[in-house]
Amino acid sequence: MRIVIAEDDPLLREGLALLLRAESLDVVATTGTPDEFLAAVDEHRPDTAIVDVRMPPTHSDEGITAAVEARRRHPDLAVLVLSAYVEQAFATELLSHGGARLGYLLKERVGRVQEFLDALHRVAGGGTAIDPEVVAQLLARTRPDSRLERLSPRERDVLALMAEGLGNTAIADRLVVTEGAVHKHIRNIFAKLDLAPTDRSDRRVTAVLRYLDDTRRRR
What we know:
Rossmann fold, Arc Repressor Mutant, subunit A, 6-stranded parallel sheet, 14% strand, elongated, DNA-binding response regulator, DNA binding
């Protein structure tokens, strides 16, 4: 896996590079500004980018903007976004684009090395990785509408793990149930949220968006 890192904190930037290289991953460039990041992506054509949300000059959304531009130039680029705290608009924006090859983690997750590496590999493999704390905070602020109230507690557990980007096998392991039980819960979630099969949408992502969109609307 070829990786470019965009992080303006030099200690975290170099710490990430050392961690990843120790795992035999190929860190081809480390950058501290959005312009340097985009130049590195164009030059090295990495498989994956790790990008801080807030970067110079204003430390607002430059990282997200640069990540979106990098994906526009290189649609197959996997992007794992790091943030110091939960920023709802950015998490929702990531999922609203389908979630493929995208991740959103809190920086504190980097210290939990195996969880961080699992998320990185999941995103690089074409999946989604949303920090459990992001999901928990967003769902905690949600006042359920009539459709969400249809879900059982177990179905809510399954949906929360879906939002983290876990597949059926991983969900089954986390909840200590069979894959068949997970598959049944997911079918029930789709039915209760009125998500019919269609070629034009990803029902897993749409189910999570129902939570996040409702949260944003009610803030």
